[in-house]
């Protein structure tokens, strides 16, 4: 037997002999043997169970987090604002008849995520094909910044959005936004106001809305695209506003003036039906249309203060009559100028005779008005103007309201010059408000740019004049239109009354007769005044045909035109004949 065969026999006997006959006498019985197949199967089952448990745990955690995220409120991440803030809505603004003055229009804004921009230069080059006015330097700085969000252009048009989408620039996107749209353009710019790029009120009634809580709602995210906001109705009559704007634009062109303005006021409720100030601007594009040189964003009617000239003689006459120290039968000597404190007071249209109260008003006598103020006295004069609200800031909704100016110390010469409109500067709006008290029975009613009923107006009205005084003032207003400087404001059948005011402006510290600020204060129908119309024109240079450049030759004509065209819309019917009925003749 070979060596290898013997080894195999011995190995077989040593390890695999399990029979009884194979055991040596006295040896222990062999051990039981379980194969590797059984051991391997148990380990596999344990591993599978562990893996199933691990996957179940992982998916349970993921599912739980998804549920948590779904139920939690959205959070602001990085520099991207919440969508609610981005598309903050504003309520529509309507005129008193329901015409839309301002509304929101859906638009989009262009943004970039700089970390996703592949080639900033190429991106700018492509964007410039759609937005040729894009600032390449500033845009490059944004596209290469370390921030994760940058605005590139706000409020795109649908066409611009479509063209930019077609460019397929990585890292460029759009976010929904709102743009404020003003259908009337500049016609009601100073009345309605405008908003900034973030849809927040900057001026006019738009700014007023923000002060009444709209800005706070926007901060809280309660003015989103889906939020329903009730429209806001103003006191404005858009039809009358359009007439005022046309008359002012025509006057500025015709008389070559630097500015013009007008206000139409309900004498019994204080509602402002129209307010215009030129130069103006387009609220749809304020940044491009506001001219800093001409101050086109300045509301001269409520936000500018001026010496109102002879229109103040209306308040002087009312003061004298209401004090009881002067009656309609009294007279004043205007034959010679007044000399006081080194100053000379004389009449522009000198009559050089003794004047009645009516004559003082119709001939616009500086001398007669100064003597009326002297009769009342300095303290009485100042108290009366304060009572009529001419020396304090007007209380109304429009933010652009200026505070009048007056001399720090009132002397006799101060009172006399203020009597004919020099020395005190007020806003045209508060001049119209004070004039309403002269016409409506003596009630001072603060102006409002929101609808107001007669009952609501009477609740807050303050009686500042005797009813008898207002009756006499109506007669004086009508007399001035029939026989005085206000003749060109007369409108057949509408019974217009009024007072002119031609004020010399201060140039280099002295009054200049070559530079004027003209105004006309009107009321109609004068037998039962319902509306006050005040027109102003600043530095008119071209005289009216057959006339000059005084107030009766421009501001009076403007007021007459506004009254003639707006009266039918305001429900004022013309009256003819002695009894107010229409005259009919047959031929």
- Count of the separate structural domains: 2
Number of strands: 18
Cα Rg:
43 Å
* Coarse structural class: alpha+beta
CATH architecture label of the largest domain: 3-Layer(aba) Sandwich
Beta-strand content: 15-25%
Helical stretch count?
A: 19
Low-confidence stretches: 15-24, 75-86, 581-587
As for the CATH topology of the largest domain, it is Beta-lactamase
For the record, what CATH class of the largest domain applies?
Alpha Beta
Tell me the overall shape. elongated
Question: What can you tell me about this protein's structure?
Answer:
- The protein is α+β, with helices and mostly antiparallel strands and 587 residues long.
- The protein has two domains: 87-233, Penicillin-binding protein 2a (Domain 2) (Alpha-Beta Complex); 241-566, DD-peptidase/beta-lactamase superfamily (Beta-lactamase, 3-Layer(aba) Sandwich), CATH 3.40.710.10.
- It contains 19 helices and 18 strands.
- The strands form six sheets. Strands 1, 2, 3, 4 and 7 form a five-stranded mixed sheet that branches.
- Strand 17 (510-524) and strand 18 form a beta hairpin.
- The longest helix has 36 residues, at 36-71.
- The chain is elongated, with a radius of gyration of 43 Å.
List its salient traits.
587 residues, alpha+beta, Penicillin-binding protein 2a (Domain 2), Beta-lactamase, 2 domains, five-stranded mixed sheet, five-stranded antiparallel sheet, disordered C terminus
């Amino acid at each position: 037997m070979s060596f290898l065969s013997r080894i195999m026999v011995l190995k077989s006997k040593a390890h695999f002999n399990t029979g009884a006959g194979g055991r040596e006498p006295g040896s222990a019985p062999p051990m039981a043997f379980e194969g590797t197949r059984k051991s391997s199967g148990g380990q596999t089952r344990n591993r599978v169970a562990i893996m199933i448990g691990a996957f179940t745990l992982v998916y349970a955690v993921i599912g739980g987090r998804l549920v948590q995220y779904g139920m939690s409120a959205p959070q602001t991440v990085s520099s991207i604002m919440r969508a609610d803030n981005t598309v903050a809505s504003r309520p529509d603004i309507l005129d008193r008849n329901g015409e839309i003055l301002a509304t929101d229009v859906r638009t989009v804004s262009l943004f970039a995520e700089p970390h996703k921009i592949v080639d900033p230069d190429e991106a700018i080059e492509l964007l410039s094909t759609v937005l040729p006015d894009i600032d390449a330097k500033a845009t490059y700085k944004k596209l290469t910044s370390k921030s994760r969000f940058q605005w590139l252009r706000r409020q795109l048009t649908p066409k611009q959005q479509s063209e930019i989408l077609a460019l397929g620039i990585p890292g460029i996107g759009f976010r929904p936004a709102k743009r404020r749209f003003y259908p009337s353009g500049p016609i009601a710019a100073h009345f309605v106001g405008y908003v900034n790029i973030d849809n927040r009120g900057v001026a006019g009634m738009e700014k007023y809305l923000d002060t009444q809580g709209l800005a706070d709602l926007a901060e809280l995210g309660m003015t989103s695209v889906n939020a329903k906001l009730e429209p806001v109705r103003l006191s404005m009559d858009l039809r009358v506003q359009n007439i005022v704007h046309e008359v002012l634009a025509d006057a500025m062109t015709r008389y070559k003036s630097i500015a013009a303005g007008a206000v139409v006021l309900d004498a019994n409720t204080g509602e402002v039906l129209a307010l215009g100030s030129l130069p103006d601007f387009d609220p749809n594009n304020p940044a491009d249309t506001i001219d800093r040189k001409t101050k086109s964003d300045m509301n001269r009617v409520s936000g500018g203060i001026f010496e109102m000239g002879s229109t103040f003689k209306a308040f002087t006459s009312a003061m004298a009559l209401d004090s009881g120290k002067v009656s309609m039968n009294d007279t004043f000597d205007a034959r010679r100028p007044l000399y006081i404190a080194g100053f000379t007071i004389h009449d522009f249209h000198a009559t050089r005779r003794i004047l009645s109260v009516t004559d003082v008003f119709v001939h616009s006598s500086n001398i007669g008005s100064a003597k009326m103020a002297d009769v009342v006295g300095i303290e009485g004069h100042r108290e009366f103007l304060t009572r009529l609200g001419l020396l304090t800031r007007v209380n109304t909704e429009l933010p652009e309201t200026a505070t009048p100016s007056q001399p720090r110390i009132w002397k006799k010469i101060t009172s006399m010059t203020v009597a004919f409109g020099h020395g005190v500067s007020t806003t045209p709006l508060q001049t119209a408000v004070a004039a309403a008290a002269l016409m409506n029975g003596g009630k001072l009613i603060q102006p409002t740019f929101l609808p107001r009923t007669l009952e609501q107006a009477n609740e807050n009205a303050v009686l500042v004049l005797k009813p008898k005084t207002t009756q006499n003032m109506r007669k004086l207003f009508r007399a001035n239109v029939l026989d005085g400087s206000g003749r060109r404001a007369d409108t057949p059948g509408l019974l217009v009354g009024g007072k002119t005011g031609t004020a010399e402006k201060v140039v280099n510290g002295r009054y200049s007769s070559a530079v004027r600020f003209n105004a006309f204060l009107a009321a109609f129908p004068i037998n039962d005044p319902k509306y006050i119309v005040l027109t102003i024109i600043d530095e008119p240079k071209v005289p009216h045909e057959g006339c000059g450049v005084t107030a009766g030759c421009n501001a009076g004509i403007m007021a007459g035109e506004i009254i003639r065209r707006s009266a039918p819309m305001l429900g004022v019917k013309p009256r003819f004949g002695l009894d107010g009925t229409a005259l009919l003749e047959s031929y």
